[in-house]
Design goal:
Length: 210
């Protein structure tokens, strides 16, 4: 009798503690990516998520949070390139999350190279307060040495497109043996575009300084 009461009390305490924690889910709506960064650990050739799979993902999130009593979540969309999944999948996911958690109950993040960003995407992300992040490793001559020719201009176009719609973009930078000695140039660049980089150190297998 005392053992049972003790277990029930512990379970009740666990449920209460769980409800105070915001779970963080990560969705990869696309495993394809138009870029070919030298050091990328992710896929760049793969399928995109179907509407049925997206619905199953939303149902999974709903089932877990309903069972645990958690009414506030964070969802980050990663890839591949998440925008490659298409606008309809994004509408389905964001509308579905808002229907379950309300306007302020779900913090949504996106990590993208922004090459596929359109005005329609920007309007959708602004309406759903999506927190957008992208990746640049410094100014054009540094970034394109690591990420491929033309990558800098395409990502910068995406940043400016987002800003034109009132959507701010954060940025991460990966430091390698090539751009680490140029760290001041990289940081000065981010101060210039006001992106405020986070850093993601990496190992070898990337272009090195000449």
């Amino acid at each position: 009798m005392h053992v049972r009461e003790g277990r029930e009390g512990a379970l009740a305490a666990t449920r209460t503690e769980t409800r105070s924690v915001r779970p963080h889910f990560m969705l990869a709506p696309s495993l394809t990516c138009p870029a070919s960064c030298a050091y990328c650990f992710g896929p760049n050739d793969g399928p995109t998520m179907s509407a049925e799979t997206m619905q199953a993902s939303l149902d999974f999130i709903d089932r877990i949070t309903s069972a645990t009593g958690q009414n506030s979540v964070k969802v980050t969309f990663h890839g591949g390139e998440p925008l490659a999944a298409g606008l309809s999948i994004w509408r389905q996911s964001l509308d579905g999350l808002r229907a379950r958690f309300g306007e302020g109950g779900c913090e949504v993040g996106l990590q993208s190279n922004l090459w596929l960003l359109t005005n329609e995407f920007c309007e959708l992300f602004r309406d759903h307060s999506v927190d957008i992040g992208t990746s640049l490793d410094g100014p054009r001559e540094i970034n394109d040495r690591l990420r491929g020719e033309g990558c800098f201009d395409r990502t910068m176009l995406g940043i400016r497109t987002a800003e034109a719609h009132g959507v701010s973009v954060g940025c991460i930078a990966t430091f390698t043996p090539f751009n680490a000695p140029r760290w001041r140039q990289v940081l000065d660049f981010f101060l210039w575009i006001r992106a405020g980089p986070e850093t993601a150190p990496t190992g070898t297998n990337t272009p090195t300084a000449e």
